[in-house]
Amino acid sequence: MNKRVLITGGAGYIGSHTAVELLGAGYDVVIADNLSNSDISSIEGIRSITGRDVDFVEVDCCDREAFARVFERYEFDSAIHFAASKAVGESVSEPLKYYRNNLLSLINLVDLMREYGRRNIVFSSSATVYGEAEQLPVTELTPRKSATSPYGNTKQICEDILRDSVAAYGTLNGISLRYFNPMGAHPSALIGELPRGVPNNLVPFITQTAAGVRECLSIFGDDYPTPDGSCIRDYIDIVDLARAHVAAIERMTGGRSKSSYEIFNIGTGRGVSVKELVEAFERVNGVKVNRRTAPKRAGDIAAIWADTTLAGEELGWKAERSIEQTLDAAWRWEKRIRGLK
Ligand code: UFG
Predict the structure, then answer these.
(1) Listed residue (33, 31, 29) closest to 2, CA to CA
(2) Quick one: which of 30, 261, 299, 341 has the fewest CB in 10 Å?
(3) Active-site residue identified among 151, 179, 224, 235
(4) Separation of CA 139 and ligand 1 centre (Å)
(5) Cβ(138) to ligand 1 under 6 A?
(6) Backbone torsions φ then ψ of 335, nearest 5 degrees
(7) 96 CB burial (10 A radius; 0-12, 13-18, 19+)
């Protein structure tokens, strides 16, 4: 069996951690990334952690001809597709960027996988497809809600493109992994999240505030219908999340018949509030995070967390790292990139 996996967007946050876990599990990887929202230094980080070589191709998956050359050059049966734009707010002001990048790169991938007779595709989806769910936790059967941003809409459309392609062509397998809120860094602190500019997401904002890069964390909203008034999310450790991709690849390469499409929630099964997370960060790392209550952020939902039963039963995967381990790694990574002790 060919044990090479193509990782599009593999220089990015989730992609680089997934590359490490795949290499650790005995796979070879080839990374295709246009470095539009990632840094080449992550490739070095992957090599240092694993002691393995990684093939890296700088390519835009929206450029079909250039992307096809990756298929010409490398044999692989499976691809994991991370390459996409991911800022919810930016997607509202620049919708065409999101529809073009996110849809075209997946369409090209599916098309080339067919053309070159490659079989397995894992798609990087998001819990955002559930919107504000009526019942918590959400299972994979919880109905999707109309997306509230072009970014969220691209995740829904891409899931549908993959589902319909698997059904129509008969030669592909597809798995969509719906991530909840990824956080943390590799325990080595050699790779982690590298947001450009002011972070949109909570954990990089916390770590940058603790490091003195940002003055004060705004906690968006304090009168949500939750026990402490702040929003609740399901924060999943980045290494655990990366391992879910290894489990998905193993399931697809495990000799099943072709043409199946499946969806799995990837979370911890536990909801944590914004205030609880900030307090846990302070406790674990012995640092102070300046914070204030700020108005609600447009588009935020009060609470969501995952039912992860299906991933446990079918993928044999579950989240293992504690919130303390995750927040410790997140802080060590931030200190390392800022040159702090
Ligand atoms: N938050 C703050 N202050 C900040 C940043 C965030 O209070 O400076 C709060 C938000 O209001 C929210 C929580 O922290 O309640 C988490 O916010 P994030 O932006 O980190 O994450 P979201 O839950 O909004 O979105 C994330 C991903 C999306 C994905 C979505 C799926 O960023 O890509 O989860 O649920 F679509």
Answers:
(1) 29
(2) 341
(3) 151
(4) 20
(5) no
(6) -65, -40
(7) exposed
pLDDT tens, the chain, 341 aa long: 579 999 999 999 999 999 999 999 999 999 999 999 999 999 999 999 999 999 999 999 999 999 999 999 999 999 999 999 999 999 999 999 999 999 999 999 999 999 999 999 999 999 999 999 999 999 999 999 999 999 999 999 999 999 999 999 999 999 999 999 999 999 999 999 999 999 999 999 999 999 999 999 999 999 999 999 999 999 999 999 999 999 999 999 986 667 899 999 999 999 999 999 999 999 999 999 999 999 999 999 999 999 999 999 999 999 999 999 999 999 999 999 999 98
**SS3 state at 40:** coil
> If you measure from the C-alpha of residue 274 to the centroid of ligand 1, how many angstroms do you get, rounded to a whole number?
9
Write out the two tokens for 164: 């319909």
C-alpha to C-alpha distance for 42 and 291, rounded to whole angstroms? 31
- Ligand 1 within 6 A of 200 CB? yes
CB under 8 A, 24+ apart: contacts of 86-91: 86/37, 86/151, 87/151, 87/200, 88/128, 88/149, 88/151, 88/152, 88/200, 88/299, 89/149, 89/200, 90/151, 91/149, 91/150, 91/151, 91/152, 91/154
Ligand 1 site-directed mutation target among 98, 205, 231, most atoms within 8 Å of CB = 231
Q: Is 220 in the pocket of ligand 1 (CB under 6 A)?
A: yes
Atom of ligand 1 nearest to the CA of 128: 31
Length of the chain: 341
Which residue's CA is the nearest one to ligand 1's atom 11? 220
The alpha carbon of 109 and the centre of ligand 1 are apart by a number of angstroms equal to: 28
In terms of DSSP H, where are the helices of the chain? 13-24, 41-50, 64-73, 88-93, 95-98, 104-115, 150-169, 202-210, 238-252, 274-285, 309-310, 323-338
CA of 237 to the centre of ligand 1 (A): 15
Question: Dihedrals φ, ψ of 298, to 5°?
Answer: -55, 135
